[in-house]
Amino acid sequence: MFTNRTTDMSIALSHGWTYRPLTHDLLGMKNNKIKLQEKSGPDGSKVFCALGDATSTGTGTVSFDLDPNDAVWSQFTEAAFQDVGEEIDSRLKAYKKDVEAVSRRNAEDVDQAQMATDASQLASAVEAL
């Protein structure tokens, strides 16, 4: 049996599935920087695609530095890629929950301030009568 020896298939099988090598291979990391294509999502939000992505026709290129002092990068650089996705998802859910709590608290503060203003205006109206 003859095979093409120019490609070693074992390399693909032994490739690391951790965050750093996959970021390097999939997003074209060079000198601790990745460049992504920015475009608008279906709901108008910003979406970033890899530059080699055929669907990445967007508004411009955005560069991100992957600094070793970045807490997320340094924590997950050697973690399994699927674990990183799960952890980022749980952190995003916690962040959204915190934002909702702050928004509710601010709405309650506004309601209390509005009630105090309405009460003083009502008192003024009663006195005027």
Structure description:
With 129 residues, this protein is an alpha+beta fold. It has helices at 9-14, 19-27, 71-76, 81-128, and strands at residues 33-40, 46-50, 60-65. A three-stranded antiparallel β-sheet has the order 2-1-3. Strand 1 (33-40) and strand 2 (46-50) form a beta hairpin.
Write a brief structural summary.
The protein is an alpha+beta fold and 129 residues long. 53% of the residues lie in helices and 15% in strands.
**N→C terminal distance:** 106 Å
Q: Beta fraction of the residues?
A: 5-15%
Q: Provide the succession of SSEs.
A: HHEEEHH
Low confidence ranges? none
Mean pLDDT equals 76
Global shape:
elongated
Using brief descriptors, characterize the structure shown:
129 residues; alpha+beta; 15% strand; three-stranded antiparallel beta sheet; 4 helices
Detail the topology: elements first, then pairings.
Blueprint: H1 9-14, H2 19-27, E1 33-40, E2 46-50, E3 60-65, H3 71-76, H4 81-128
Antiparallel strand pairs: 1-2, 1-3
